[in-house]
Amino acid sequence: xxxxxxxxxxxxxxxxxxxxxxxxxxxxxxxxxxxxxxxxxxxxxxxxxxxxxxxxxxxxxxxxxxxxxxxxxxxxxxxxxxxxxxxxxxxxxxxxxxxxxxxxxxxxxxxxxxxxxxxxxxxxxxxxxxxxxxxxxxxxxxxxxxxxxxxxxxxxxxxxxxxxxxxxxxxxxxxxxxxxxxxxxxxxxxxxxxxxxxxxxxxxxxxxxxxxxxxxxxxxxxxxxxxxxxxxxxxxxxxxxxxxxx
Length: 246
What we know:
Layout: E1 3-7, H1 12-22, E2 27-32, H2 35-47, E3 52-57, H3 66-77, E4 82-85, H4 93-98, H5 100-128, E5 132-136, H6 149-170, E6 175-181, H7 202-214, E7 219-222, H8 226-234, H9 238-241
Parallel strand pairs: 1-2, 1-4, 2-3, 4-5, 5-6, 6-7
């Protein structure tokens, strides 16, 4: 029975992953900001076969609260087989351009708060010398595009942090997976004018994540074709890139 921690457990992608693991009888420790929604998710996962579901309410931006959550998590599970870190917001780029406070708040949520959490979490995994850490970043971090460069810069920082962390924890027998989804049909993207053929379901992304963790991958793009799309975008010369609207 795998012991799995899911932080940001009420997000659509995290729920889809949790359902995959629940069907295999995993023991789950769920963390999210919305306590009522968290309890609903826990009940659903129990009905789907999860052996034990514990809930912990945490606002990821409350850095001082991280330590107590990790202490409780380790006390209940003793050792951690898989940790999925999934919190995030999708900022309004225009609001970030006009209000520095909004820009800083969104950057903190999507990068700084996650780095603050991952630092002690990495120490726990390094100390036990096994386990898998999987963190949801984004294809947006591959290049700063005018349509969402605040979000992209936060995800770029997160991805770079994970790359260094991967090299460090590899020596302790811990795998670190950076997950880079493209467009996904979730409540966070509801109402956005997304290109239909490129939009994935949370279930599809979850299957890719679970496979990536099991295979001890370093980085996955999900769905897979985003690797090619972002390879093209990364290689557009700057003199052209600054003239296009992406």
